[in-house]
Amino acid sequence: MDTLPAADEALRVAMAEAAADIDLALDMLIPPSEGPEARLFDAMRYASMGGGKRLRGFLVLECARQFSVGRDTALRTAAAIEMLHAYSLVHDDLPCMDDDDLRRGKPTVHKAFDEATAVLAGDALQANAFYVLSEPDTHADPAVRIELCRNLARAAGPRGMCGGQMMDMLAEAAGGPMEEAQIGRLQMLKTGKLIEFAAEAGAILGKAPLQMRHALAAYGRDLGAAFQIADDLLDATSSPEEAGKRTGKDEAAGKATLVGLLGLPRARSQSQRLAAQAAAHLDVLGDRADLLRALAAYAIARRN
Amino acid sequence: MDTLPAADEALRVAMAEAAADIDLALDMLIPPSEGPEARLFDAMRYASMGGGKRLRGFLVLECARQFSVGRDTALRTAAAIEMLHAYSLVHDDLPCMDDDDLRRGKPTVHKAFDEATAVLAGDALQANAFYVLSEPDTHADPAVRIELCRNLARAAGPRGMCGGQMMDMLAEAAGGPMEEAQIGRLQMLKTGKLIEFAAEAGAILGKAPLQMRHALAAYGRDLGAAFQIADDLLDATSSPEEAGKRTGKDEAAGKATLVGLLGLPRARSQSQRLAAQAAAHLDVLGDRADLLRALAAYAIARRN
């Protein structure tokens, strides 16, 4: 984020604060444990704490702020969504899936612990995400809490993240080219649905009017798609030093991405179009949404 | 169940009806799908449909009936709990866990499909269980639905099923003897919590008075413990033909069970004590709970 223009210093600060607060929340919600389950808690903490941009958690906090939801309230939901996201990374990294040894420069969970512990830590993080959302501390109104659970379950299930990962595994096994519409659908399911929900969750917590809720969901949808193409662009064009991770992975793995299909210039213009479209959904929210606008710009400007 | 006394014909019929109804509910809740996710839905259906005693689902239905909850309503919750249970079996069977090739005489999911699909099908079944519970069709009152989600999440998480499985993996790796209290705690977490919740869920759906809810939870707790010892007794004493599955597994695996620790006679008397204790919790419910009483007797009398 060092290459962001100075005007977005406010975004940089807000994202760093959100990441720190989310880590504190996770530290409380997954406390170190004693006894024979200690290893499971250790693995859950290792998988979920101290890393990543916290894009999803930041979206929850910043969208909830539009409706004056208390930060401590929103932090529980932000942490729950980050738990869900962390679980998906742990399982995606497994030998039978993408078989990755490193994640954000650290050994993946099945490397740092073992495969059985990684499967269980992912499973337990998913359950814990729902547990956190369902507790009264998350929101006094049970109707709000159940709406959060319902939307998280949909985003995580077979018509969301799991469905997208299944498509991804099958596409890789088949090895053939994919059409643009297929790649778009795969990414919408695999990562888009959860990002969309993260933005919408702020509106749910704030009991926002449906119009606002739909606007934020649409913002999240376009933002997620822009981020995904920008990720693929980074993978195709950055050095590992710049990106902070191994690059050129997609091409080496023969992975179908929009960048591979459309070429760099068209992929770049598509990510710009999506970011502009994401920002346009925020018109109903006025100046208060400026950090969300800056986030859309950051999605395509970032170098890591 | 063929060796059950004739007096329990009513239980046999009720359990068979429940199993058939739960399969119909699962067939509707996890419909066959088209397109690239079809394989995921196929694996979820394979894992969850057409097998097992449906102990957990039957408990939901029969406990809900105590409070005149409509059967169609209770069936959604029964199916959700069976989805959660099915997911736990799929992941427990994985090569990195218990590495089982057969489950109820059929190839396990990672054998019939592949490992990645098995991990994803388990993940998606867990998400779907929460999705089903959170939908308005499950109960008109959001406070009831969130209470179901909360209790399921707790039973499934690191202080429930996942914690128990972690203890189990560690105990097997360590190979040393376990104390009675440890084995009891392991089994309470690994299988007990979900069975307890299945019984309690009926009371939650029926908005039963707290006294009744606690009585059913206690019934589920003791029943689950009795079932577990009876399972271990069957493993230790039955022929594979009688049990319908490979037996003598626990001893061969050096698995710590109460049967191994206490010996057959004491384990048998402990399962009888637990079944009687389970039945005693039903006193507050009167004659209407006779099938639940029969179930406690069946827990320790069954031959498979």
UniProtKB/TrEMBL annotation, chains A, B:
GO terms for biological process: terpenoid biosynthetic process. The keyword Translocase does not apply. Keywords: Isoprene biosynthesis, Magnesium, Metal-binding, Transferase. Its cofactor is Mg(2+). It comes from the Bacteria. NCBIfam families: FPPsyn. This is Farnesyl-diphosphate synthase. It comes from Neoroseomonas lacus.
